[in-house]
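Structure ticket #2291
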Amino acid sequence: MLGSIIFLVSSGILAPEKKNGAHLGSTYLSVTATCRDNPSCVFSGENLTVDIVIKNESTVDIGYPLQFVTRRGPSLKLIDNKSGEERPLRTNLAPHRLLEEFTIIKPGDSIALDAIISQHTILALSTGQVDLTAEVVPAADIQVNGNLPLVPFHSAAKLRIKAADAVEHVENSDSGLGK
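Resolution: structure written out below.
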């Protein structure tokens, strides 16, 4: 399956505390990303809207600065799978005060936000046929069970974006209909 490929990747920011080699913020929340109304993330020449879900995997309340991340946008990076070229996408400015306004995520609950990857950005990075990986990183300092200090959260979800004709080619090859 080409779309909705999900990876949970932990990497630290600001030298976060670690326990058994894992960054503590990443042990509380998971991130998934899917292309809206397009589960295979097929690029057909239009902008792609990416739906991002952050789920509380812990047993305690987690405060996440949702308004800040929504206004700024999550960090996005596109990688051309053929050339290896990477392009980080620009985020927006957001009021710094929003970093202190937390949306509480109860255990087992989720919050959602979205991001748009423009057709121009996709086409500008692609060398020939579109075959990209989008890395979505909604990093932020989170509040664990209402306590301070804040804990860095840095986890990523990856999506594979392919051109419509590339997806048809793969599906036909898999079904024995030709190459």
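Closing remark: The mean pLDDT is 84.
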